[in-house]
Amino acid sequence: MAGHSAWKNIKHRKAAVDKKRGKIWSKISRQLIVAAQKGGGDPAFNPSLRFAVDAARAANMPRDTIEKAIRKGTGEGSEERYEPARYEGYAPGGVAMIIECLIANANKAAADLRVIIDKNGGKIGVPGSVSFGFSQKGQVIVEGTTEERLMECALDAGAEDIQGEDGTYRVLCAPSDLAAVRGAIEAARIAVDSAEIVWIPMQTVEADADTLVQVERLIDALEDHDDVQRVYTNLV
Q: Would 78 be classed as within a structural domain?
């Protein structure tokens, strides 16, 4: 597992929420719209929407903004529609990247991302050129508990692995078990910080200081694009 990379990414995302709150809200609004569009507007019966609502609350998004996005997804607010898309490629140093997006215009999104990647020393790839080296998993992040408590409640619900660092724990499971694992953790009265489906590299690579700066610059540029939701790499 890419342990060090995982904790760095988790902490980076928390800092990004504070640094770019408006951009984060825009991205989460798209998640809300798409989740409601595909599974309806009631989080109790739509796990994807529930995860998106939780992400919105964690980012301190106002309730009326959340509800407005959900209404757009159910067709009550507007005709605004987005579709999920995944792009693959390489950052400087041969670092593999998976870029998850929610897009309204596929041609524009592909052109924009190609320009960003090319300008920052990367290379766009074809579908499947990178993702074969990653595994998709459900991930639940919790704090304020112990590994023993997590094992007691999560393993029977389908958890495959529990990792911890500095009081933060990451519970991994099959994507189909994410809702059950999360529910079991919450039933044990353990607060969930986030729950989502992520891409985890099966093998990781290291980079020197100069390459690391270039990779981080490229990731920042990609994440600054409205269509981009998440960027995953196999960097340690």
A: no
